[in-house]
Structure formats: structure tokens, C-alpha cells
Amino acid sequence: MKSFTGRMTDGRRAQVESSLARAARLRPVTWDLIIPIDPTPGELQWFERLRTQYPFKVEWRGATWIETRLTEQPQVRRFYFANAMAETEELLRQLVPERGPIANTDEAMQRMRGMIDRLSQLNRTTSSS
Fold it and tell me: pTM for the full model?
């Protein structure tokens, strides 16, 4: 797994080629390069040459492909890009606030109702994204 956010420099191309060669030893059915950029003509030419060296399907999945997947799955976008993890942690903190443990079932139910209401709001927001 590689994490590139800029153009495919010579060094990055070498890393991709090395990773692909290692993966080829495992005889995959497909291998995908997923990076948040669409290829330039030069990058595409390099990748097409690379593709011909292997008997399995080799695909470039760039920014357009990623954006399409995120549009199809808005909850993924929200999780990774809208700090949903912090929201979840805050909801969990609300279950047992700093004032101490839950004293009785009535208090537990009251806190849970508040969390359910907030989760419903988050769900509506995520569903409409």
C-alpha cells in the first residue's frame, strides 16, 4: 500500500513498479493503483506500458473514480472527511458524562433517548449528503 497525493514522480513510479512486481508473485486476478489524481498523458503512457508486463488486469483508479465511489456511498465520505469519528466519540462520552456513572435505569433511558435523537439527526444529515 502506498500513499501518494501528488504527481507520479520517477521515485513514485519506481515504488509502484516494485509493489506491482511483488504482488505479481502472488498471482492476483487484478491489481489496482488507487491514487487521488487522474493520470496525465505521460503518466498514462507509463502505466499502459507497465500494464502490458503482467497477465492479470492492472487498473489506475484515480480522482474521478474515487469521487464517483464517494458519491455512491456518502456515509464513507462523511466518515473520512467530516470527522464523524469525533462525533461518535462525543456521543459515547455523553452516555457516561463526567459527573459519574449512571445512577438508575431512568437516567440511563434519558441519556439513551438523547443519543438516539442525535444519531437520528446524523443519519438524516448523512442520507441527504
Answer: 0.59
3-state secondary structure 6-57: CCCCHHHHHHHHHHHHHHHCCCCCEEEEECCCCCCHHHHHHHHHHHCCCCCE
Task: Kindly report, residue by residue over 52-87, the tens digit of the pLDDT.
Answer: 999 999 999 999 998 898 888 877 777 666 666 676
Burial class (CB in 10 A: 0-12, 13-18, 19+), 58: buried
Distance CA 34, CA 55 (A): 19
Q: Which three cell numbers stand for residue 92?
A: 459515547
Could you read off the pLDDT of 36-51 as tens digits, one per residue?
899 999 999 999 999 9
